[in-house]
Amino acid sequence: MDQLSEVFDLVEVRGLMSGGFAVRGPWVSRTALGDELKFIAMVGGRARLTTDGIDGPIELEPGDVAILNHRSWLELEGGTGDGPRREVAPEQGFPFTHLRGADTELDDIVMGGRIDLNPAGQALLLQALPPIGHVQASAAAGYNLRGSLHRLFDEVTANRLGSAFAIRQHTQLVLLEILRAYLDQSELPPGWLRLLTDVRLRPALSLMHGEPGKSWGLAELARAAAMSRTSFAERFRAVAGVPPLTYLNRWRMLLAQRALRDDDVRVGSLAFDLGYASESAFSTAFKREVGESPLRYRHRVREAL
């Protein structure tokens, strides 16, 4: 099973390009950040990135991307040559006319975007990422990311029919490559992203994701991972940050939120499908995890659509 794709669909991860600029000579760009998750891509040239919560600047090379997690401000500084630094403000929104005619060999080219998530996704991804994640294109895992960035840049600057649609699709792929490269390059904190990359625990994870309504026991999951119960439980908690059955319950709640939002399934049927003995047991577990009853949650999220 491809758990990363499954989680992407479940938490409705959406990458949206929000702006960019191309400049030659010394420059600086300062931005207040209103989005919880932001990404900054260095398509061409180099820059130094500073934000709150880090000890010193991060050097961005061509093809590098930074993921900013709940930061309040950002400063980028780059360029060479004499004279004062020019203040640069990113152009906001399509059609990104300031990027047309830019030369990836001569200009410093920066593109930025935001990562939109549903509430369940915010809880998962914001906890799994550090204040800033630096994804380096120079590493082997960054090869596909470099290609995706250049394809996105080509679409932004080509002014072809259907560009707005194509930019949305390419931004989604860029976001996927960012997270793929980040998973390969980084020492991840305990959480679901780290769990997805753990080869030894993957067989047990596949069972829980494949049949979330089954009453899985610790012994069965440990056998699937070819480990003793004690070793499996200790490793799972160290990697995921929670015990296996706590993770399974949270996964069920994510599935329940999607079903309540998108489908017309009865709460009792949903409770049975997810392995609960009764509708009341499911409702109690749902309220404990989500903070409101299933029916209240369904009404609220559908009103917001």
UniProtKB/TrEMBL annotation:
Keyword entries, A-Z: DNA-binding, Transcription, Transcription regulation
Keyword Transcription in annotation: yes
GO molecular function, one term: DNA-binding transcription factor activity
Domain of life: Bacteria
PROSITE patterns registered for this protein in UniProt: HTH_ARAC_FAMILY_1, HTH_ARAC_FAMILY_2
Gene3D superfamilies per record: Homeodomain-like
Pfam family, one: Cupin_6
Domain HTH araC/xylS-type: 202-300
Protein name as annotated: AraC-like DNA-binding protein
Species in which this protein is naturally found: Kribbella antiqua
